[in-house]
UniProtKB/TrEMBL annotation:
InterPro entries: NRX_PDI_b, Thioredoxin-like_fold, Thioredoxin-like_sf, Thioredoxin_domain, TryX_NRX_thioredoxin_dom. PROSITE patterns: THIOREDOXIN_2. This is Nucleoredoxin. Belongs to the nucleoredoxin family. GO terms for molecular function: thioredoxin-disulfide reductase (NADPH) activity. Functions as a redox-dependent negative regulator of the Wnt signaling pathway, possibly by preventing ubiquitination of DVL3 by the BCR(KLHL12) complex. May also function as a transcriptional regulator act as a regulator of protein phosphatase 2A (PP2A). Associates with the phosphatase 2A holoenzyme. Interacts with PPP2CA; the interaction is direct. Interacts with DVL1 (via PDZ domain); the interaction is direct and regulated by oxidative stress. It catalyses: [protein]-dithiol + NADP(+) = [protein]-disulfide + NADPH + H(+); [protein]-dithiol + NAD(+) = [protein]-disulfide + NADH + H(+). Its EC number is 1.8.1.8. The gene is NXN. Residues 67-214 form the Thioredoxin domain. Coiled coil: none annotated. It is an enzyme of class 1 (oxidoreductase).
Length: 335
């Protein structure tokens, strides 16, 4: 099968030398094999889930497989667990959560129990919000059993093509995943799972991303998504952590805005870490000194760390550290 056109594919399926791990970070690869299609002219991502594309369109009839609007991909009937159905067009004007999950997945079942309560609280607060379940169950019976626990909508299990298109649209690499959309169908956050677990009262709904996060048990999974700047502080006092967040937030916002203008994901996530058992475990795992404040960049996929141990952390020091990292001027230490 041959195609003409300006499209390139990156397939990650075997060991990649450390020098090439930046591709993993750039495209946020979390498992293999992964196939990502790029526009060879601009370098922009066309499709993050090329393996599904090949499976669903082996003849290349939909080439070049560019992203389609959410409204177009979701178009069609949606189900309630009582058997009633409604058209997806009736959801216009609502925030939406697209929930990729399955009954066979224990973390999915745990998240579903929390999400049911979050859904109820958001609806009771008068917010226009709906969740659409996209099943990864292995049988229709499992789907029906799992869906019976959910008060929201679902793509019919028998509509495998639409479920696959939604997976392709958002480049789903693992479950559970909750994508939160604005009323126009644009992504607010891909980290709905973390937001729901961190905001039990849903006070920050619809969970617009924060430039700097306070490291916690529920969001620590994001450390595996790519390089992360982590500023360790020496106090459990909220005031200390807040001051640290305010210190690095302007740099984080600047980096995020720069890459958003290029329609690319920021190459770094930004965290502040206080003193708790989880932070102690992270220090132990990465073999970091006990000093604080301690400015680091941790790249778990490359098993590399970059450490700046100085008595005082200033915005100028943080910005220089970040710029040197992005320019590949820093020498990594092994984790």
């Amino acid at each position: 099968m041959e195609f003409s056109g300006t499209l390139a594919g990156i397939c990650c399926s075997t060991y990649i030398p450390p020098a090439k791990l930046k591709l993993w970070n750039k495209y946020r690869i979390s498992n293999i094999p992964s196939l990502i299609f790029l526009d060879a002219t601009t370098g922009k991502v066309v499709c993050r889930n090329g393996l599904l594309v090949i499976r669903d369109d082996p003849e290349g009839l939909e080439f070049p497989w560019g992203p389609k609007p959410f409204r177009e991909v979701i178009a069609g009937p949606l189900l309630r667990n009582n058997g009633q159905s409604l058209e997806s067009s009736s959801l216009e004007g609502s925030h939406m959560g697209v929930y990729f999950s399955a009954h066979w997945c224990p973390p999915c079942r745990s998240l579903t129990r929390v999400l049911v309560e979050s859904y109820r609280k958001i609806k009771e607060a008068g917010q226009k919000f709906e969740i659409i379940f996209v099943s990864a169950d292995r049988s229709e019976d499992s789907f029906k059993q799992y869906f019976s626990e959910m008060p929201w909508l679902a793509v019919p299990y028998t509509d495998e093509a639409r479920r696959s298109r939604l997976n392709r649209l958002y480049g789903i690499q693992g479950i559970p995943t909750l994508i939160v959309l604005d009323p126009q169908g644009e992504v607010i956050t891909r980290q709905g799972r973390v937001e729901v677990l961190n905001d039990e009262d849903c006070r920050e709904f619809p969970w617009h991303p924060k430039p700097v996060l306070e490291l916690s048990d529920s969001n620590a999974v994001q450390l595996n998504e790519g390089p992360c700047l982590v500023l360790f502080v020496d106090s459990e006092d909220d005031g200390e952590s807040e001051a640290a967040k305010q210190l690095i937030q302007p740099i984080a916002e600047k980096i995020i805005a720069k890459y958003k203008a290029k329609e690319e994901e920021a190459p770094l996530l930004f965290f502040v870490a206080g003193e708790d058992d989880m932070t102690d475990s992270l220090r132990d795992y990465t073999n970091l000194p006990e000093a604080a404040p301690l400015l680091t960049i941790l790249d778990m996929s490359a098993r590399a760390k970059y450490v700046m141990d100085v008595e005082e952390i200033t915005p100028a020091i943080v910005e220089a550290f970040v710029n040197d990292f992005l320019a590949e001027k820093l020498k990594p230490e092994p984790i």
